[in-house]
Amino acid sequence: MFTRKTKSTIDSLIGMSTSIKGDVGFKGGLRIDGHINGNINAETGQPSVLVISEHAKVVGQVHAAHLIVNGEIIGDVHSSELLELQPKARITGNVYYKALEMHGGALVSGKLSHDQAEEAPVLKLAASSEA
Fold first, then answer.
1. Phi/psi of residue 18, each to 5°?
2. DSSP secondary structure string for all residues of 62-106
3. Tens of pLDDT along 3-18?
4. Which among 66, 55, 61 has a CA at the least distance from the CA of 27?
5. Which of 6, 40, 41, 55 lies 20 to 30 Å from 91, alpha-carbon distance?
6. Nearest one of 89, 84, 85, 91 to 110, comparing CA atoms
7. Are 20 and 35 in contact (CB under 8 A)?
8. Alpha carbon distance 15, 68 (integer Å)
């Protein structure tokens, strides 16, 4: 009877002992436990879930629809749907979000900017043409 719009599944994992230098692109779900020195980009226009665990460190920009952060990001963060900042989250950079959930202990050193690009559509009434 009740169904979810998008299924939150993790398709890929970057382990704690892994270090990547370069940009990472993904679609679906990705969990990062290691270190990435480069930008992380989810496929645009598609549902995506990115988990930055408490052991992870990212130096670069991050773009994802649903982003869960409990580690460290040095760079700007862009979340087109929901951004969850868990207690050990540390972000040094500007944060752009549509919806934000911030737990006690999470730190952001930068500007928080609510994405107002997709405002509710305005209802226009057609003019009455009775003659």
1. -100, 135
2. EEEEEEEESSEEES-EEEEEEEEE-TT-EEES-EEESEEEE-TT-
3. 444 456 888 999 999 9
4. 66
5. 6
6. 91
7. yes
8. 16
Token code pair at residue 129: 């043409």
Nearest to 101 by CA among 69, 75, 72: 69
Q: Residue 53 is encoded by which pair of tokens?
A: 């665990």
Q: For residue 37, what are the β-bridge partners? A: 21, 59
Is-contact 45 25, C-beta < 8 A?
A: no
Where do we find the tokens 């598609």?
46
Helix-strand-coil split of the chain, %, nearest 5: 0, 50, 50
For 56-81, what is each residue's pLDDT tens digit? 999 999 999 999 999 999 999 999 99
Q: Whose structure tokens read 């900017």?
A: 113
Residue type, 72: E
First to last CA, the chain: 49
pTM of the entire predicted model? 0.81
